[in-house]
Amino acid sequence: MAGRIILFGATGYTGRLTAEALANRSAERVVLAGRNQPALAALAGELEEAHDWGCDIAVADATDTMAVMDLIGSPDDVMISTVGPYTRYGRPALEAATAAGAIYLDCSGEPPFIRRVFDYYGPRASRTGASLLTGFGYDYVPGNLAGLLALRKAEQAGFVPDRIDIGYFLRLRGQTPTFSSGTLASSLAVLAEPSFAFRDGAVAAERPGREVRSFSVEGRRRDGLSMGGTEHYTLPRIDPRLTQVRVFLGWAGSRTRRFASAGRVIDPVTRIPMVRPAVRRLAATFAPGSHGGPSAVDRSRALTAVVAEAFRGDAKVASITVLGPNPYELTADLLAWGADEALHAGLGSGSSRRTGALGPADAFGEPGFIEGARMLGLAATD
Fold first, then answer.
1. Residue 374 lies in a domain
2. Which one of 130, 176, 320, 352 is at 20 to 30 Å from 301 when CA atoms are compared?
3. Is there a single domain that holds both residue 191 and residue 257?
């Protein structure tokens, strides 16, 4: 049976953008999946009319694990999951792909979910033959690219970095953009959960926003909060001599340091039994999932800017800035590109397919990853 691309959560905000990206690529053998059959049929019809592109549909609810399992019919299938927040809804699709030995991509920016993929599902995937790519969107592909290029730049200059810092920012045009309900739901969920970092050569738990540091972004100093990302797992694979990897998110702008102060107060409270589940329920009430987001005009007001700085001791030995499109459309394009490449043996085929929990460079090789990112509009500068 030929492999298919199964887009789960196709009628959500990110799902629709990803479906559009797949149609723009004329991707083959695509199945739009979700819980609402009329909405799926309407979306498929819209895409056929706009792009002369055909796809199938399948119905499955994220709360019905067996129905999600039934979406995957072959180890050659590629599952894209856009059903978030992933800490609440992400497990069935991840479980299904891992059990089937299939290929899986998501765009999670949630540290607890990402750590679960690498620490628990990664070893299982290596045994079943599955290939898992989590955080395959604005979070955290540009940082993987910037980090890789900074390491290679330092290497070419004769340095061996032992630390790399990565900062994620937005380049704003005009008024502050709005965010999708899925982004808000994920952000609220993250506040109540532990995060992690790569320190002293190992991944270790720490609270979100434990550290704040500033980066130079297009000539301006911008603050970022420390947060767990895929780079903590993937960059030390590229250079095992790294002993520290730090990832910072700078979406809060001038309020970053106030968020860090609030985090110091919130963290002890969320350790109290029943408080963390209560915060999760609150997040679910105010941001129930990915059911709406910014318009195309609003999306165009925020573009991607990611900085990677490599250090040897306290000395900075290399710096790379990656600029790119708005985060939502970048995420959709990355998911569509990654799935299409994977469907056509971009991860290798048969017994040579790369398996386990993978980073972009692990999955597609450094040249393939760099070229794919370039085609999607991610441009690196010194």
1. no
2. 320
3. yes
Task: Give residue-wise pLDDT tens across range 244-262.
Answer: 999 999 876 666 665 555 5
pLDDT tens digits for 62-109?
999 999 999 999 999 999 999 988 998 999 999 999 999 999 999 999
What distance in Å separates the CA atoms of residue 3 and residue 342, rounded to the nearest whole number? 10
pLDDT digits (tens, 9 = 90+) for 112-158: 999 999 999 999 999 999 999 999 999 999 999 999 999 999 999 99
For residue 373, tell me if it sits in a domain: no
Phi, psi for residue 289 in degrees, rounded to 5? 145, -170
- The domain of 204 spans 141-326
SS in 3 state form for 203-251?
EEEECCCCCEEEEEECCEEEEEEECCCCHHHHHHHHCCCCCEEEEEECC
Distance between CA atoms of residues 139 and 52, nearest Å = 31
Report how far residue 33's alpha carbon sits from residue 12's, in angstroms, rounded to the nearest whole number.
11
- Split into its structural domains, the chain has a count of 2
Q: Which residue has the tokens 């630390």?
A: 163
User: How many CB atoms are located within 10 Å of the residue 214 CB?
Assistant: 15
